[in-house]
């Protein structure tokens, strides 16, 4: 575990702390001919060796460095084909972490992976999944008749309400599992403060009632899920 942790820390330092934005821009323009691509890979190699502080792992670090180069190079050429740059970014990070995991547990990779899967808390995973998009869809169906009577605010970000609801339900679930019910009250209070100005300026009673019902329903689903999980 400590080997993977150190390799992950080296990756975070090399990819985020020690990579200036001008390096990123230069790589995006020049791709394989960018000198900063090779500086970046060399930096990863050095940082990983320093954190491990054991030359016996130099082959492992070399494999990581080479894979990092190939993954980054593939991302540079694939990014223009994506409308959202966040997609290749997250794919890139996932592949990097996957390589780190494989290198850290190369001696018993399959056994370790099988053990992790066996020890997963499936009840918690189910609860987390439920309070995300399934709950958002359920709420949309329950509030469908009301939403037709609300004038849409075109200044709002697309799907912002849905993602705010998902995040708040995840927080509520986490607080219930931790046994910190008072934190839920603080979360409701914080949301009320942020919503107050919008509702005050709109002076729309229907919108106020709609948001209130949606908020209570969202928190209710998360609280119910948390209670069921804790009891389970």
From TrEMBL:
Transmembrane: is it a keyword of this entry?
Answer: yes
Ordered alphabetically, the record's keywords are: Membrane, Transmembrane, Transmembrane helix
Transmembrane annotation, as ranges = 36-53, 60-78, 90-110, 122-143, 163-189, 210-231
Establish whether keyword Cell inner membrane is in the entry: no
- Please report the name of this protein according to its UniProt entry: DUF3307 domain-containing protein
Source species = Pseudozobellia thermophila
